[in-house]
Each structure stands twice: as C-alpha cells, then as structure tokens.
Amino acid sequence: MRLRLLALGVLLAGCGSTGAPVPPAWAPSTPTTPAAVDFPVAAVPRPIVLMGPPLVNVVGYGSDAEKVAASSGRFSFTGAEPATPGPTSVFLPDGRATFPLIGARDAVAAMSADRGEGMTLELVSAELSTVVFQTDRGALELPAWKFRTPSGSVLAWPAITPDAFWKFGEVRYALHHATTTGDGVQLEVELPAPTPPCPGEAETVTETVVVEAATSVTVGLRTVSEGDGNCARDAMYRTRTHTVRLKEPLGARVLLDENNGVIPVTTR
C-alpha cells in the first residue's frame, strides 16, 4: 500500500519559489503499518487529549522579552499563593467527572519543567478560573490557574492534575480536522489534497485508507492514478474532505493521520 503524506519541508522550501518547477506539495511515504497507540480507550472518564501546549496566553504579551521568557519556560511566582480548592466537577464530552486540582505553585513548577536559558518572567498574581482548551473532541472549558505579569499579560495552565490527561504536553497533533454524526460511524475527514494538474494533464486521483484498531483509527490516502506534473508548481497547502465509514463507531478511540498525529473530531 502506498500512502501519501504532506511534505512540510517542500511546503516551506516552496514559499520562496521563483517560478522554476518544484515538486508537488505532497510526496509518497514509505509503506508502513500504523504504530500501536497506548490510548486507554476503556478508561472512565476518557482521558483529556490536549491539542497543543498546556500553557495558554490569555492576554497578549507585554513585550517580546516576556514572550521569549515564556517560550523558554522561565517563570518566577512572587505573588501571594491562593489556597488550593478541593476536587472540582468538570463537564467532559462523555459526561461529568470530578478531578483533584493542583496548587498555583505546583502549576508554576510544571510550567518551568523544561526551563531554558534567558530572562525569567515574573508572575505577580494567581487566580483560579476557567479557560477554554482545544482537545481532540473539540473546545473544552477546564479549571485553570491564571497568572498575571507586571505588564498585564495573563498566562493560564490547567489546574486539573496531569493524570486526567493523555500524554500531557506531549501529544503530536495533525494539521487536519474531522466531524462526525451522532453515531460515530461516518466521519468527514479533512486530508491533504494533491497539487492541481498541469495544463492538459490528468489530475492525481487518491482514495482513503482506513486502519481500525482497538484504541485508534488511522486515516490516510493512497494514489490510484497520478498526473505527470511536468510544470511549475506552487507549494500551497490544499485540503479535501473525505467521507469515511467505519466498521465500528469511533467511540473513545483516537483518530490519527498516517504520522500518528491526532486529528480532532467534533460532532455536527
């Protein structure tokens, strides 16, 4: 089976194209079998899968120096530490669940776990609030510690204990997204589209390839027929939506692309 992936390196290199022929904005991959995914599909509640870093910038950085310090994971909390509340009820896609919370200083310690070099960003106050985080099942409002800097920037970190998440801060996520109906059997999945054909040449034709496993569903593409593409090409990232029907409802399983990147799924 010949699968196709988006060649990000080609995309980036093509941004400065001078009109000379360049490869299409995607390229064939080596045939592979999707790696096993250790997602605890039977866990109740279903673990939260964050689509992005746990650190969220709620109010824009007051300076470039603050932005650099935050990206380097260098934080110093100088404010009064609020009391840590008891367990909190959270509404999840699979129902309500109650989680213990971490304290403000524990959150700062987690934010600084990958501490790099450079200036330290002072955090002068902390407030327990809620923040919307993007997950593999859509936007989710979660308890979070909000920290304010001297310039008024506000950063947020999840206040729920890390064991409520799957691979907290380590999830590889895809560039695409998907929607599903209530039964979870039919999916509309956005995937990379071939570069348009050269004048007078046939279009590249692809079809979806679906591999279902106990803990995951992997969706990719294979080439049915391929155009020559013997002309100058742009490197624009294009997508196309594909309808996929699963043998079993998606349920709690994670949806993955060919590179084991998590594809977010929302119910329409």
Structure described in brief:
The chain is mostly beta strands and 268 residues long. The chain has helices spanning 8-14, 64-71, 104-111, and strands spanning 4-6, 26-28, 56-59, 75-77, 88-92, 95-99, 121-123, 125-135, 138-148, 154-158, 178-180, 186-192, 205-212, 216-225, 239-245, 254-256, 265-267.
Explain the overall architecture.
This protein is mainly β. It has two domains: 4-39 and 172-267, no CATH class; 56-164, Lipocalin (Beta Barrel), CATH 2.40.128. Helices cover 9% and strands 35% of the residues. The protein is built from three helices and 17 strands. It has a four-stranded antiparallel β-sheet, with helices on one face. Strands 15-12-11-17 form a four-stranded mixed β-sheet, with no helix packed on it. A three-stranded mixed β-sheet has the order 13-14-16, with no helix packed on it. Strand 13 and strand 14 (216-225) form a beta hairpin. The longest helix is centred in the first third of the chain and has 8 residues, at 64-71. The model is unreliable at 1-31 (pLDDT under 50).
Characterize the overall form: globular
Instruction: Provide the low-confidence segments as ranges.
Output: 1-31
* CA-CA gap between termini: 32 Å
Note the total helix count.
Answer: 3
Domain unit count: 2
Helix content: under 10%
Number of strands: 17
| Biggest sheet details | 4 strands, antiparallel
What is the strand arrangement across the widest sheet? 3-10-9-8
Mean pLDDT: 86
CA radius of gyration is 22 Å
- Percentage of residues in strands: 35-45%
- Elements, N to C (H/E): EHEEHEEEHEEEEEEEEEEE
Q: What structural category characterises the helix and strand content?
A: mainly beta
